Amino acid sequence: MILRISFERGADRLIFSIFSEKNDRLRSPNFGSHRQFMYKTSDESPFPEVHPDRLALVALLNTLPFVGETLHIGWQVSEKFLEATKIISRIKINSIEGKIEPISRSSSGRHALSFSGGADSTAALAVMPHSTEPVFMLRSESKSRTLYDSQAAVESCRQLSRLGYRVHIIESDFEYLREPIGFPTDLSVSTPAILIAESRDFESIAFGTILESSFGTSGKSFRNYSDSSHFRLWKPLFESVGLGYSLPVAGVSEVASSIICRNHPIGRVHQSCIRGKWGNPCNNCWKCFRKITLISALNEEKLPISTVEMMRKSKEVKLRLIEDKPIKHEGVITYSLERASGGGEITQSLRLLTRVGEIKTDWMQHWYPKSLDLIDPSYQKHTESLLIELLGEMNQNQIQNLESWSNPHDEKREEKLEKFVRLLD
After folding, report:
1. In a 3-state reduction of DSSP, which class is residue 171?
2. Tens-digit pLDDT profile for residues 196-218
3. For helices 411-424 and 315-323, angle between their N-to-C axes, nearest 10 degrees
4. What are phi and psi of 207, to 5 degrees?
5. CA-based angle 393:265:160, to the nearest 5?
6. Is the CB of residue 50 less than 8 Å from the CB of residue 14?
7. Model's pTM, two decimal places?
8. Is the link from the previous residue into 180 a cis peptide, with omega within 30 of 0?
9. 171 and 37 Cβ atoms separated by less than 8 Å
10. Alpha carbon distance 146, 156 (integer Å)
11. Exposed/middle/buried for 416, CB within 10 Å: 0-12, 13-18, 19+?
């Protein structure tokens, strides 16, 4: 059960080839015996040279879910990288024999941000050093029908370029390795930045991961991200290839990232909806529902009629509200519905379901200072200062409210959910 991966270089692209055995495909029956994925420069310039260890990290990020027992890397890598992979207990990783010197971290003062064009990665850019270079992964077009539209994100990149940022757009089709289409691992999105890190002399790669994802408040209970298997796996692996792993907005909720985008000059370049065009979001997806509701709360306004219409008519919004137990990012919905008035009987039922008035949510407006260690040390002080300026720190009561976050789906909640569902029908 060995999954093998190799690569070849074209003029403006890198092409990875994956060869799987029958037993590997027990994990992913539709994967096939041979698959490819590629990375391509958007301006047709030559693809830069990449250290073998960084190529191996890209391979691992895109194949880990599909490996049955062993991943064989078809080129030489350093002992340092192979040693770092031993933290992965489920599979073994080996490579072609040979000695390769590991790559050391740069001291250039230049950092990358894995940029999506949305509010969270824009908020991250706002609190990072001005030398930061956003790197956007442009999904290759597919012949099959898709709701995804990259136009708004590409426009965000264009506007950042006009503001003086060095923005990189790298095209890739790795999302098609998975069914349904999506990132093989959540950090696959950073692979374009990893591949150009040597040529751009990046010290670290940052992500727009926010508090709900890092500290678990999008789900049932708070967690300390530094103790999580995710952090203990990927931080050492990034460091083994000479790259820092940085989460500048890990202590910032979705509420606070929206506040940053409202108040910081570069906030205007973002658009969270990935289905609509620039300046014209679809107003029918789960992201649009959350953002419209949150904007109403921040403006202290009545909920627009479109919010209730989405609950009634959008299959995706209904699915998220009804099937997810608890609702993903439920605390953000609670915050919004507590502060935005109106919406009628359906919205009032949703307020009861999401515990409006039962739990404290004011902590979502501020920065969680215990997330400081998740920010790369080289610009930690810079980011801390900006976060305090833009949001203020959580006080002790707010920190306690955050760290005691618990949202189980019990019998009482199920009764509230059943009432909500009846009103929607």
Report:
1. strand
2. 999 999 999 999 999 999 999 99
3. 160
4. -125, 155
5. 120
6. yes
7. 0.95
8. yes
9. no
10. 21
11. middle
